Amino acid sequence: MSPHHRSSRTVLVLASLAALAVAGTTACDPNTGDTSGPPPVPRALTEQKPHWTACPAPSTAQGGGDKPEKLPDGTTWQCGTVKVPLDYANPDGKTIDLALIRAKAAPDPGEKRIGSLLFNFGGPGGSGVSTLPLIAGDDYRKLHQRYDLVSFDPRGVGNSAGVQCLDTKAMDAWLATDKTPDHAAEEKTHTLGTRAWARSCENNSGAVLEHVGTQQAARDLDLMRQVLGDAKLNYFGISYGTQLGGVYAHLFPKNVGRFVFDAVVDPTENILASGLGQAKGFQGALRNFLKDCAKHDSCFFEGKDPAQGEKEIVALIERLDKRPLPTEFTRPLTQSLALNGIAAALYDKESWAILRAALAETQKGNGTALLVFSDMLNGRAFEDGGYSNINAANTAVNCADYKDRFTADDVHRHLPEFREASGVFGDWMAWGLLQCTGWPVDGHAPTLDVTADDADPVLVIGNTGDPATPYEGAEKMADELGEGVGVHLTVDGEGHGTYAVNDCLTKLVDTYLLDGTVPKNGTTCS
């Protein structure tokens, strides 16, 4: 699949994904009686009390793994569910359960709890229930002193009416197929495969596909705010989570509390512009990786010229198109899986050393390491080979949000632009435009409305070396939120996400979330 977001350095890196866009229509909090929005949510839902219990191990749909460990201060994780309308246009109708996780605040003597801080780690399709415990221990220690740390599986994700499509065997086969067709026969196979994927999602999850878009998820956020007892929503969104937060701010500007957006989606881009932006972003990240690689004796190419490294990667990709590499698993490394694996490693600079070794292994005829990277990004578990539903949810949310639908002819028309953007990833990302071809549900709109003129300040953080959500997206998000709302912060660095990676930025965010001190718009952290 095409790239997504990331979940906390390497963990978040390989759990979260592609940046997309959704448009919103002007509406107010449905519980204020404003008739421009959906009908009011019944009090039975807004006044419900979650039943919190000890957390089990994450399900396969959530990514699997062990039960969450206690935080360093001894706080135990609690899990629960919240009922939300399947369709906010009919709030008295059928409901679904959203899976939640929390660690209650542990204030120091003399300090007071501020409230809940909700996290969305991106995707779309990433499970917040499985991700938050993996990173909160060190990264969110200060925040936990004043906030209940809360995350959730958004609708359609993980244990929240998670979208299901192919079984493991069929998923293995689909992900390994050629995603960069070279001739008419391969194009037909690829298009038919895309349509078969869509049919499997409809057959297994057709009842929810119409209701998993970002607007509905944003309304879920406001219902969670009420259930958790917060007057305003305090929120930390990463990658796709910034899109979700932007839509929330547009729909409920007066309910915006302290908001932080990191690794920011460009709300002004349609799916074509977003794909081109990602192609440029990943090409730039690859170029920076190759420059760094040339400084190391362990680099996979000879000499100091990064262009030579790119030539060798292109040659590898071309060889894999005809002859996949063997691995230590039963599955070989195909061209599509290799591209996915390289992209996965570029999400985080901390993965560069492993990527150097992985590319060196391919020169010895071993594709194992790149396959591992690809599996991590695709949500494939090592223990049992089962997949999380991140791919299924990613497609379902994107196709519910985006109105555009592309054909093979459209791809051919835009291929020159994508190839100019990236000599390595261009074709792969161009053919990714077919993601929603044959999807059974119409998309909402071509772009995203995040205007929120009456909202409190929102910190909007862009990293100059971000491959998945290029830096310009943060500038656009800050502008679109409105004057005095979007506070644009820059990190001059590498990777997808900056909090708990860059000390300067982390201090600014902590001070804002804990003390309410808004940093100066335009601040740069090196």
Please outline what is shown here.
This protein has 526 residues and is α/β, with parallel strands linked by helices. The chain contains 18 helices and 10 strands. Helix 7 crosses helix 8 (240-251), helix 9 (271-293) packs across helix 10 and helix 10 runs antiparallel to helix 11 (335-345).
Number of H/I helices: 18
How would you classify the quaternary structure?
Answer: single chain
β-strand amount: 5-15%
Return the average pLDDT rounded to an integer: 92
Helix content: 40-55%
What overall geometry do the principal axes of the alpha carbons give?
Answer: globular
- Give a short account of the largest sheet: 10 strands, mixed
Distance from N terminus to C terminus (CA atoms, Å) equals 33 Å
Task: Please tally the β strands and state the result.
Answer: 10
Strand order of the largest sheet: 1-2-3-5-4-6-7-8-9-10
Structural class: alpha/beta
Q: Return residue spans where pLDDT drops below 50 for at least 5 consecutive residues.
A: 1-35
How much is the radius of gyration in Å?
A: 22 Å
Order of helices and strands: HHEEEEHHEHHHEHEHHHHHHHHEHEHE
Which terms would index this structure?
13% strand, 10-stranded mixed sheet, 10 strands, 526 residues, disordered N terminus, alpha/beta
Protein model, in words:
This protein has 526 residues and is of the alpha/beta class. Helices cover 41% and strands 13% of the residues. It has 18 helices and ten strands. The chain has helices spanning 9-13, 43-46, 128-139, 141-144, 168-176, 184-209, 214-228, 240-251, 271-293, 306-322, 335-345, 352-363, 368-378, 390-401, 408-421, 426-431, 472-481, 503-515; strands at residues 53-54, 78-85, 95-103, 115-120, 147-152, 233-239, 256-264, 458-465, 486-494, 524-525. Strands 1-2-3-5-4-6-7-8-9-10 form a ten-stranded mixed β-sheet, sandwiched between helices. Helix 9 crosses helix 10, helix 10 (306-322) runs antiparallel to helix 11 (335-345) and helix 11 crosses helix 13. The protein is globular and about 60 Å long. It starts with 8 loop residues before the first helix and ends with a strand. The model is unreliable at 1-35 (pLDDT under 50).
